[in-house]
């Protein structure tokens, strides 16, 4: 293969990578200089979505938790809160979780809240978490995730 053929091959592979990585973008150039120029000028359109807390039925309580990791794994923290139907905080806490993956941080936050004595004294508190991986065990074939789910379900 000559140099011109190799350049064409590289251009084609980069174009295919760009099309695969950004399927929503139209008219991605096929040659390297125009491809670079295209992506240097690219400005993604971000559409913010406001999410509101939805209260439980009157007389009930609601438990929310969240965990995050700076890196995966990385330094992690989490927290939980319990609110009543009026939105008043019954209990809220945050925790430094050390070095964890994002999923472990999410799981540990739920676990810490569930183990809390105040949480245990309130009956039938619906849980809300943002991690679908934790909430839906049937969709996950991963053994490590399943072990974390089983730990939470045992609580």
- Beta-strand percent range: 15-25%
Oligomer: single chain
Largest sheet: 4 strands, mixed
Bulk shape: elongated
Second CATH tier, the architecture of the largest domain: 2-Layer Sandwich
What is the average per-residue confidence, as pLDDT, rounded to a whole number? 78
CATH superfamily of the largest domain: Ribonuclease H-like superfamily/Ribonuclease H
Annotation, overall tally of beta strands? 4
What name does the CATH topology of the largest domain carry? Nucleotidyltransferase, domain 5
H/E order of the elements? HHEEEHHEHH
Q: What is the CATH C level class of the largest domain, in words?
A: Alpha Beta
Structural class assignment: alpha+beta
Beginning-to-end CA distance, first to last residue: 63 Å
Number of helices: 6
Number of individual domains: 2
Protein name: RNase H type-1 domain-containing protein
InterPro entries: RNase_H-like, RNase_H-like_dom_plant
Organism: Solanum bulbocastanum (Wild potato)
Describe the structure.
- The protein has helices at 3-21, 32-40, 102-115, 117-121, 132-135, 143-154, and strands at 61-71, 74-84, 89-100, 127-128.
- The longest helix has 19 residues, at 3-21.
- The protein is α+β, with helices and mostly antiparallel strands and 155 residues long.
- The chain folds into two domains: 3-40; 61-154, Nucleotidyltransferase, domain 5.
- It is 41% helix and 23% strand.
- The protein has six helices and four strands.
- The radius of gyration is 23 Å and the shape is elongated.
- The chain has a four-stranded mixed β-sheet, with helices on one face.
- Helix 3 packs parallel to helix 6 (143-154).
């Amino acid at each position: 293969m000559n140099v011109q053929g190799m350049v064409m091959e590289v251009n084609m592979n980069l174009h295919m990578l760009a099309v695969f990585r950004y399927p929503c973008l139209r008219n991605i150039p096929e040659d390297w200089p125009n491809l670079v120029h295209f992506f240097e000028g690219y400005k993604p359109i971000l559409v913010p979505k406001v999410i509101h807390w939805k209260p439980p039925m009157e007389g009930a309580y609601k438990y929310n938790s969240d965990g995050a990791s700076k890196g995966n794994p990385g330094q992690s923290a989490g927290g939980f809160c319990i609110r009543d139907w009026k939105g008043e905080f019954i209990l809220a806490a945050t925790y430094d979780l050390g070095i964890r993956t994002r999923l472990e941080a999410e799981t540990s936050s739920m676990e810490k809240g569930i183990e809390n004595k105040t949480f245990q004294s309130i009956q039938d508190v619906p849980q809300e978490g943002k991690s679908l991986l934790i909430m839906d065990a049937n969709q996950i074939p991963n053994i490590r995730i399943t072990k974390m789910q089983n730990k939470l379900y045992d609580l």
